[in-house]
Write a structure and sequence with these properties.
This protein is of the alpha+beta class and about 600 residues long. It has 16 helices and 20 strands. Strands 6-10-11-20-19-18-15-14 form an eight-stranded mixed beta sheet, with helices on both faces. A five-stranded mixed β-barrel has the order 1-2-3-5-4. Strand 8 and strand 9 form a beta hairpin. Helix 1 crosses helix 16, helix 6 crosses helix 14 and helix 12 runs antiparallel to helix 13.
């Protein structure tokens, strides 16, 4: 069937010009731009208004009370010439506004004033509380003021991940803030959990002369006054352990880390972790604490169930994923697990050239992908990723010392450390270990890392002599723990991509999403042409220079998005008109 002309998508030029005409019309309608953004003080939030007046009876109006509210307009519906309905939202709470011409007390006429209000505008309302005859709590305004107009057409729905991540403000407006409110709750719960157990929250430097505490490639910066190259921190570990040496027996830090690595579904170069250090404890104590903390959060989400149902995380067959958090969690020792998967016995000494060659052959045999440099530590780490099958929470324990330069060795085997990683859905969530507190062994471990760095491993750790000196003053037996808050938020909010739980994820720069067409290229709208008005010229922001191919691709993407939004808007508006025709006359009487 051939599409009718009404079904055909708009051309790129038409879509861009339509948005620009809307922009110019809004600017024109605002009049004096210096007075177009007035101040306004609200007496209650919408949530407080609802709590205070929800008990009003149906049809009740209390004109003796005046309240001032503010929020964003999410829908506008007219019922005749003397009644306008708005849906107002603030912090995710909605309220109906019933604007009745009989109550209007502004200089402009009722019709002219409400003609200025558009979907997306932030408005302030002065009016009295009441309920419609059908029991809908409302505010009945005597005054409606536009506080901040929305100069672009607000989409009815937004599902494009690229736009959601680049224009987070638009995502929050259309899809709500639930994910990020839950993330905030995760951080608050973690902080309260640690404070209740006697931990002190501290802050450590984010710019360091030597990055340490993790195996990762750092970002570099430069301090002009000191004429000194610095690194953005990859972990706060070495500073936090210095505090333990100083006598602060339990400390934690929640903050940003920066690693100059790839971007994928579970990695963002800038991310948030919680790290804590606990004197007179070991990694067994931390496994128990980890189970307690994570299960507490899961139970708050599920209402007490150990089963977390995730509709957006998928199994290999495409079905939704279920994760069982029932305690105790499975524990898999690192080397025995690899021996079971490969069917061979690993060398007792893993820091020799012979061991490196042995593991290299295993990687080739089992098609384990490892990029250069193929050091023993990198290959062991990739082998674990390759063979790991941990959907339900699993502690992978007892890592080789060559993989764990800061972890304490087991008393009966110096080649193995008291370390664990928490794996859920085959993703690492947590890394913890009994801390190495022997300064002589720590120097030897740093020397091994220096050798790996000389072989080309840019993720190997630096030799930090100052930290070794701190250990010489005596680090008590200590256990340390780090958890990625972003990944935990992914799990608890059912978002498979880390970019969807970070408000402003790292992305390659692009031109602004909304193109501003030069004034001389825009056709006047029908309304302005009829009045003979000329749209006011808008200041043109400086645009990044794009080649012709990039401009065409950007314009096509914007046009497609606008067309989809407009089709949805027309359908929604038709539904609103039909609903108003059915329901509102009864309210008007």
């Amino acid at each position: 069937m051939e599409p009718t002309p009404q079904q055909e998508p708009q051309s790129v030029e038409t879509a861009v010009l339509e948005d620009q005409r809307y922009f110019q019309e809004r600017l024109t309608s605002m009049g004096n731009i210096e007075q177009a953004y007035p101040k306004f003080s609200n007496s209650l939030s919408i949530a407080e208004f609802r709590a205070k007046y929800e008990s009003l009876e149906n049809g009740a109006h209390d004109e003796s009370i005046i309240e001032c509210l503010a929020g964003r307009v999410y829908s506008k519906r007219e019922s005749g010439k003397k009644l306008v309905f708005y849906q107002l939202q603030q912090r995710g709470v909605a309220l109906q506004v019933m604007a009745d011409a009989r109550l209007h007390a502004m200089e402009k006429s009722f019709r002219d004033q409400h003609a200025l209000v558009h979907r997306g505008d932030i408005i302030g309302i002065r009016g009295h509380p009441g309920k419609s005859r059908r029991g809908e709590l409302s505010i009945f305004p005597t005054e409606v003021h536009i506080l901040a107009p929305c100069l672009h057409m607000l989409p009815r729905q937004l599902r494009d991940k690229e736009i959601m991540r680049r224009q987070r403000y638009l995502d929050l407006m259309i899809n709500g803030c639930d994910t990020f409110i839950k993330r905030s709750h995760v951080v608050r719960t973690m902080r309260r959990f640690l404070e209740d157990r006697g931990f002190y929250e501290v802050e450590t430097p984010t710019q360091e002369v030597l990055p340490g505490g993790a195996s990762a490639k750092p970002f570099m910066t430069h301090h002009n006054e000191l004429d000194l190259d610095l690194y953005l921190r990859i972990a706060p570990e070495l500073y936090l352990k210095r505090l333990i040496v100083g006598g602060m027996d339990r400390v934690f830090e929640i903050g940003r880390l920066y690693r100059n690595e790839g971007i994928d579904m579970t990695h963002n170069p800038e991310f948030t972790t919680c790290e804590f250090y606990m004197a007179f404890a070991d990694y067994n104590d931390l496994m128990d604490l980890t189970e307690e903390l994570v299960c507490q959060m899961v139970h708050e989400i599920t209402g007490g169930s150990d089963i977390l149902e995730l509709k957006n995380f998928k199994k290999a067959d495409g079905s939704p994923l279920s994760i069982n958090f029932a305690r105790p969690w499975r524990r898999l020792p690192f080397i025995p697990t690899l021996e079971e998967k490969t069917g061979v016995t690993f060398p007792a000494q893993l820091d020799t050239d012979e061991a490196r060659d042995f593991i290299d052959r295993l990687c080739v045999e089992h098609n384990v992908q490892v990029t250069n440099p193929r050091t023993t530590g990198r290959m062991l780490d990739k082998m674990l990723d390759h063979f790991c099958d941990c959907i339900d929470p699993t502690f992978v324990t007892d890592h080789p010392a060559i993989l764990s330069p800061l972890a304490k060795y087991k008393p009966d085997n110096p080649q193995i450390t008291e370390r664990f990683e928490l794996m859920i859905n085959n993703i690492e969530f947590c890394n913890a270990y009994t801390e190495l507190n022997n300064p002589l062994v720590q120097r030897a471990r740093f020397s091994q890392q220096a050798k790996a760095k000389a072989q080309g491993d840019d993720e190997a750790q630096f030799f930090d002599e100052d930290f070794c000196v701190a250990l010489e003053y005596g680090l008590p037996p200590t256990a340390g723990w780090g958890l990625g808050i972003d990944r935990l938020a992914m799990l608890l909010t059912d978002n498979p991509a880390i970019q969807d739980v970070i408000l402003f994820p790292t992305m390659r720069p692009q031109a602004p999403a909304t193109l501003v067409v030069p004034q001389e290229d825009a056709e006047p709208s029908a309304a302005n042409a009829k009045k003979g008005a000329k749209p006011a010229a808008a200041a043109q922001p400086e645009q990044p220079k794009l080649n012709k191919k990039a401009r065409r691709a950007l314009a096509k993407a914007e046009a497609a998005a606008k067309y989809k939004a407009e089709q949805a808007a027309r359908a929604a508006e038709a539904a609103e008109v039909a609903e108003a025709a059915e329901t509102q006359p009864a309210e008007e009487n």
